[in-house]
TrEMBL record:
Keyword flag Transferase: yes
Enzyme nomenclature, EC number: 2.7.13.3
Descriptive protein name: histidine kinase
A GO molecular-function annotation: phosphorelay sensor kinase activity
Lineage of producing organism: Bacteria, Pseudomonadati, Pseudomonadota, Gammaproteobacteria, Pseudomonadales
Catalytic activity: ATP + protein L-histidine = ADP + protein N-phospho-L-histidine
Keyword Kinase: yes
PANTHER family to which the protein is assigned, alphabetical: HISTIDINE KINASE 1, TWO-COMPONENT HISTIDINE KINASE
Domain Signal transduction histidine kinase dimerisation/phosphoacceptor: 184-249
Enzyme class: transferase
Domain of life: Bacteria
Length: 330
């Protein structure tokens, strides 16, 4: 049958190229086609992608020199697979020239076929992918019911692998989108940190100037509280930028050591809250040992100190916002 003329040069959509590549990556396909040939006794087996306009071979095991290779095409209207796509039912016959239906069918006559079996491949979402088929120019000698069951299982196995590969492609696409979103987020954080530094530096310079000119003790305390707040904000900005740069894939390493200034940071928070809420009565009682555990040096020390001060701010700020308000005379 080497002289059969197949229109293999027809162009087809890129989606079909992707389907051919997916089938080629399924390691079990060559073994499945070999087992199909053994189960049926036929000398040609293939997996075909069948659409409403194309019949394209995705994988082929050919021992009769039929002339098809992966990517090779048949005119869809000349195939039985066109009918299988519409009815989604397998077709099987062992001796076409003696068959009451297929002795008159154009496909066996065009391709000089005597034995034929084709099983639809349907994915989990109900999409008709194509067919698993076997053909021969000689009559077949096999039990039709046994062959149908065997090839039906092979078709299901191919469909399951298709679902797995398509799921992997979707997951890979989602991962690429997530990585891109993460990259853009890191860029945004870096730009935001830079933009925040500029006005913060202006505030810091303003407090330096005010501190040199103000002599009133109360006003001086307010300026110093503003200075302390700008320092904390600057540390927070640095910490956020360090998170963005380092990505912290392995978490935050902890190496506890003794530090001496934790109470100073906590006292600064209390002072800020008193100035921010002059109508609230804030009573504090703190005694932090001179040597308290924290991560020594570098940004980790700033990070842990910020966590402590943020925790205190949350505990203090909520009552000042939502707590019981009494007149000063009370």
């Amino acid at each position: 049958m080497a002289d059969s003329q197949f229109p293999q040069s027809y162009p087809f959509p890129t989606g079909i190229v992707s389907d051919i590549n997916v089938i080629s990556r399924i390691e079990a396909v060559p073994l499945i086609l070999e087992m199909v040939k053994q189960a049926t006794g036929m000398r040609f087996a293939a997996i075909a992608r069948v659409t409403d306009s194309h019949w394209v071979a995705c994988a082929v095991d050919d021992s009769i020199d039929f002339g098809l290779v992966p990517g090779g095409q048949l005119d869809l209207e000349t195939t039985i697979c066109h009918e299988i796509r519409q009815q989604r039912e397998p077709v099987i016959f062992k001796h076409a020239s003696r068959h009451p239906v297929y002795s008159l069918h154009h496909t066996p006559r065009i391709y000089q076929l005597e034995s034929y079996i084709s099983i639809p491949i349907v994915t989990a979402d109900g999409d008709f992918f194509g067919t698993l088929c076997a053909i021969d120019s000689l009559p077949g000698h096999f039990d039709e019911e046994t062959v149908l069951k065997t090839m039906g299982l092979y078709a299901q196995l191919i469909a399951m692998n298709l679902d797995l590969h398509r799921g992997m492609l979707i997951t890979e696409g989602a991962l690429a989108d997530a990585n891109e979103a993460g990259r853009l987020r890191e860029q945004f954080v870096a730009v935001l940190g830079h933009d925040l530094r500029t006005p913060l530096n202006a505030v810091s310079m303003g407090t330096d100037l005010l501190e040199r000119r103000i002599t009133d003790p109360r006003s001086l305390n307010i300026v110093r509280a503003i200075r302390q707040s700008t320092l904390r904000m600057g540390n927070l900005i640095e910490d956020v930028l360090d998170f963005a740069r380092g990505k912290l894939g392995g978490g935050i390493p902890v190496d506890r050591s003794l530090v001496d200034d934790l109470q100073d940071h906590l006292a600064a928070v209390v002072l800020e809250l008193r100035l921010a809420h002059p109508g609230a009565v804030i009573i504090d009682s703190m005694h932090v040992p001179t040597a308290a555990f924290a991560t020594p040096g570098g940004w980790h020390s700033r990070y842990q100190t910020c966590l402590a001060t943020q925790s205190l701010t949350g505990q203090r700020t909520n009552p000042s916002r939502f707590g019981l308000r009494l007149p000063r005379s009370s």
